[in-house]
Specification:
Layout: E1 7-8, H1 21-31, E2 44-47, H2 52-63, E3 71-77, E4 89-91, E5 96-99, E6 102-105, H3 108-117, E7 121-123, H4 138-144, E8 149-155, H5 160-176, E9 181-186, E10 191-193, H6 195-210, H7 214-223, H8 231-243, E11 249-256, H9 258-261, E12 267-275
Helix pairs in contact: 3-5, 5-8, 6-7, 7-8
Length: about 280
């Protein structure tokens, strides 16, 4: 029997990042050239997912400091609302993601283990068809680990009980894996406020991130209207990291789009975080 291979083609190549392989590899290599950065093992990380011209510097600061293992789980928000599980958890459980820099296979064994452990998740490739928040992380991960395999997940809920359950499932699956697994939460911070307002709100959210407190992160972002689009992916990854033995998360870089556009009146902000 011939197996049909499921392949997810790039959705934002040429807009969020260069569409040509050589240009993309060069751009990522330049963003990863962080002076003094020493790669180290980590349990989880948070990295932004905007166009590289805006958030690439912060993403580079994160990935330059990471030892990226072969296996990664990338958690992201569902921006598009697509998929059968658009308000739940959608896994791309079989096949591969194509990027201009190379093809990234899905870690099907790890995906199956997570689906079996967590009934909040389902194999839902339609949710990934146009979603950019996993895709933009892959060239960075691939540059740091050429033998990369990933489990892409996009999430549509906003409550803590489901987020806690996912975090617990992630921790169990990672703990049971025979080799290291890195959790990557894809998230931007405050959207379309002044740089000063964004910095003040983000500080509240990042204080909870540093404490690995996913429940408080969701509470703070709700009460203070911090428009952190990947708050649930971050909360789940950080909760899992705490269960896996992490003691603190470090904010390694913070930036905003006004530093590129020159307009501080309405920005999107970005934070890079490593939990170990």
């Amino acid at each position: 029997m011939i197996r049909t291979v499921r392949v997810r083609q790039p959705a934002v190549a040429g807009t969020f990042y260069p569409a040509h392989a050589a240009q993309l590899v060069s751009a990522v290599r330049e963003l990863l050239a962080v002076e003094g950065a020493v790669p180290r093992a980590a349990i989880a990380a948070v990295a932004p997912h905007a166009g590289y011209v805006y958030s690439g510097r912060t993403a580079g600061e994160v990935f330059a400091r990471l030892e990226v293992p072969r296996r990664c789980i990338v958690l992201a928000p569902n921006h598009t609302g697509l998929g059968d599980a658009s308000e739940g958890g959608s896994v791309y459980a079989v096949g591969a993601f194509v990027t201009p820099a190379g093809e990234v296979p899905v870690d099907e064994t790890l995906a199956a283990a997570l689906l079996a452990r967590c009934d909040l998740l389902e194999d839902d490739p339609a949710a990934h068809a146009r979603e950019h928040a996993v895709e933009v992380e892959l060239p960075f991960l691939l540059a740091r680990q050429p033998h990369l395999a990933v489990v892409p997940i996009v999430l549509g809920w906003s409550d803590w009980p489901r987020t806690r359950r996912l975090g617990e499932a992630l921790a169990e699956v990672v703990r049971a894996a025979e080799e290291p697994v890195l959790l990557v939460a894809s998230s931007d911070m405050t959207h379309y406020e002044s740089a000063a307002s964004a910095a003040a709100k983000d500080a509240l959210a990042l204080a909870e991130v540093e404490r690995l407190d996913g429940e408080r992160l969701l509470d703070v972002t709700r009460r203070h209207r911090v428009t952190m689009c990947g708050r649930v992916p971050a909360a789940a990854a950080l909760h899992a990291a705490r269960l896996l033995g992490a003691t603190r998360a470090e904010v390694v870089h913070y930036s905003h789009s006004g530093q590129v556009t020159g307009d501080d009146g309405s920005v999107v902000s970005y934070a890079g975080v490593i939990a170990a």
